Amino acid sequence: MASNTPAPEAPFDAFGGGAAPSAPDTEWNPTEDSLRAQNRSGGRHRVVKQRSNFARSSTVLGVGVIAAVGAGGLATAQEKPPVAISLPDLPDLPDLHLPDPHDLPGVGDLLPEKTPETVSAARANPNPLTVATYATLDDTQGATTEQAAHRATQSVTGAGDAGEALRARILQQAEQQQASADAAEKAAAEKAAAEKAAAEAQAKADAAEKAAAEAEAKAEAEAKAKAEAAAKAKAEAERLAKLAASYSMPLSSYSVSATYMQSGSMWSSGYHTGLDFAAPTGTPLKAVHGATVKSAGWSGSYGYRIVLELEDGTEVWYCHLSSMTVGAGQTVGTGETIGRVGATGNVTGAHLHMEVHTAGGDGIDPAQWLRSKGLSI
């Protein structure tokens, strides 16, 4: 490395203190030989601490790093005005060759790229790092304060838009979840309503089926009852027809003039004890059924009377006869003539007074008894 040219005697104040009065006889950077010569001559010589090129370069590089960091890392403080950092001017050192900051490891990456514009600026200002200026990122890019504020507002707005988007997304997800819950609840309610309607419909169908079954059973029971009643009536009719074939009315032509238990003063008991068939005197009288003549003759107020005793012990009385054609102990058949109508005894006119008594002697209604035998009065 070439030696430095002679400099004034006073050392350079690196921190802005200025230089002492020039001393052309002194050496700025003495060598070992000069020092040895000064010692031999017995004089004193003030030796300024030697600054190597590397030290000086380190100072410049440090300032460059600060400038690079200020330009790149601190550009976010957009609201602060630029701050100037001044360094003392260095004397012209034409033989001082400093390394390019872009070539230094770890530093070149922090500096902006070399362009023709930056190279021209460096040539115009050979000591660009003697004055470092703190500037914002927008200033380095040539942007105005209004543009920086606008970009900051856009950044805040963008952050707000991102927050609003996140909020909208959360609200959308909540609405979707609520909609899903509402849809599930609605589906459950519709399913429950459908199940309830189906159950009610099934219950109604079961009730209708049960009612139909009951109605059918009732109709069948009524039909059966009617059929049974019809069969019973038919059987009774057949029985009565058969009885009618074996029983006969006592007269063929008549009119009923008094009924059983009819009240009146004409009867000593106060009521009528038999059934009266009015007919002309001499009208033939027939046996109602096959029987035995229990008695035949005069009987006081009854006049001439015939008593027929049937097989079951029932007695049939024929009273007020004008004549009798059978006698006691005689057996007669159904429809056989046993006497004739008359007006004997306590009477007001010709008629047949007929009474019916059970085997125990109690009187019963002759008309009802004749009907029970299939006969019509």
Automatic annotation (TrEMBL):
The keyword Coiled coil applies. Keywords: Coiled coil. Residues 167-240 form a coiled coil. Transmembrane segments: none annotated. Residues 28-41 have a biased composition (Polar residues). Residues 271-366 form the M23ase beta-sheet core domain. Residues 1-53 are annotated as: Disordered. Residues 1-25 have a biased composition (Low complexity). InterPro entries: Cell_wall_metabolism_enzyme (IPR050570), Dup_hybrid_motif (IPR011055), M23ase_b-sheet_dom (IPR016047). Pfam families: Peptidase_M23. PANTHER family: MUREIN HYDROLASE ACTIVATOR ENVC, PEPTIDASE-RELATED. This is M23 family metallopeptidase.
